[in-house]
Amino acid sequence: MDVRTVRELASPDGRALLRSLPEYDETTALALGESLRGQGYSPDLVAAVLTQLRLRTRAKAKFGEFAADMLYTADGLEQASRLEVAATHAGRFYAASLATVHDLGCGIGSDAVAMSALGVTVHGVDADPVTAAIADVNLRPWPDSRARPGRAEDFSPPADPLHSRVGAWLDPARRTPGVADARGRTRRVYRLDDISPSWSFVLDVATAIPATGAKLSPSLPHDAIPLGTEAQWTSWGGTVLECTVWWGPLARRPGRTARILGEGRHPIEVDESMCEPDPPVARAVGDIGPWLFEPDRAVTRAGLLGAVTAATGGREVDAGLGYVLGTEDTTVPFARRYAVREAMPFSAKLLRGWLRERGITGVTIKKRGVRLDDEALRRELKVGRKAGTGAQATVVLTRVAGQQMAFIVDPT
């Protein structure tokens, strides 16, 4: 797709065409394309329309009812902040009373749209002209906000950002252009040195504009967090999506924090003030109690396990593994609690016998600190996945005080 085609899609006729078509269906896409070409639409426009229908179907998971009002590129959709996360970003800039935000690497504009909806004017740039054109289309409901082609590195900070109430937002590319993985998605990069624009450029922008935020990989090393900033790991439905670093007035609680989001639940935030300074670790298998707690992965990535041990009076199973053993019957909003039915030294033979005696035919396997192939273990245990009929069980494989253990647990 080129910029001209983006403009065709964004025209009144193009939007009317998109609105008139049914949801994308792979089985009928070829016939639909032939029908549109037969009506006189150009092959380029037909290809672009079919691509938009396909991407809109995927976009519903991120943008819900707003998906039908936006345009996309495949890579842009893959990298865009989902609606709830973009709203979190936008809320920081709004709460800091910023008038304008420079979105340096705006992608298809998901964060820019969320900021604009709160009344913040956004000036976005993206190095790819097609992506910039799509972001500009997505920002049309807010005429003061625009996106244009340009390199983030060419940005010139205003002379007095505090007086002019200016902020900056950066979402450096964490993928390798033109290099796809086995599923056809551009390959991720994980090293801070490989992002584009560079980490040093992000730091320069934050020095020039105190109200700066940068969306980074969840694998951001703790020792890379700049002094005085807030680094917040965010999860959705248990999957960690990002670590965002906030400078100046955008940093609410300097240090490491975690924000937990999910369908139908209020956001939960965890910070260092909630933590024990040195989370205790189980010293022996005898420390196993009636409860096992699995912290949300944002909490684990942020290094805030001490909040779980403090809330439960528990101990980590083994250093660095994250599971917490507890004796107190308590509920922790940022950790899943399991009742321990049985705990035994891990042996496939021993575990198989325990499952057979109880007629268990399907298991869910969870593991940390134990390396094995799940399917090979299922074959050895002679059980299937947790599905269908028959008794089911959840098995947690981990280490306690250096010893491999198997827990059979019930979610509570």
Beta-strand proportion: 25-35%
Q: Report the CATH C-level class of the largest domain.
A: Alpha Beta
Helix amount = 25-40%
**Rg over C-alpha atoms, rounded to the nearest angstrom:** 25 Å
Low-confidence runs:
none
CATH architecture of the largest domain: 3-Layer(aba) Sandwich
Our measurement of the CA-to-CA distance between the termini, rounded to an integer number of angstroms, reads 50 Å
Number of domains: 3
If you consult CATH, what is the topology of the largest domain?
Answer: Rossmann fold
Structural class: alpha/beta
Annotation, overall tally of beta strands: 19
Strand order of the largest sheet: 3-2-1-4-7-9-8-10-11
Fourth-tier CATH superfamily name of the largest domain: Vaccinia Virus protein VP39
Mean pLDDT: 93
Main sheet: strands, sense, barrel: 9 strands, mixed
Quick take:
The protein contains 13 helices and 19 strands. The protein is of the alpha/beta class and 412 residues long.
Report on this model:
The strands form 3 sheets. Strands 3-2-1-4-7-9-8-10-11 form a 9-stranded mixed β-sheet. Strands 13-14-12-15-19-18-16-17 form an 8-stranded mixed β-sheet. It folds into 3 domains: 3-58; 77-272, Rossmann fold, CATH 3.40.50.150; 285-411, 2-Layer Sandwich (VC0802-like). The mean pLDDT is 93. Strand 16 (360-367), helix 13 (374-381) and strand 17 form a beta-alpha-beta unit. It has helices at 3-10, 12-20, 29-38, 43-63, 74-79, 83-95, 110-117, 129-138, 199-208, 297-301, 305-312, 348-357, 374-381, and strands spanning 100-104, 121-126, 146-149, 166-170, 175-180, 186-188, 212-216, 230-236, 239-246, 255-261, 268-271, 291-295, 315-316, 324-326, 335-345, 360-367, 384-385, 391-400, 403-411. The chain has 13 helices and 19 strands. With 412 residues, it is α/β, with parallel strands linked by helices.
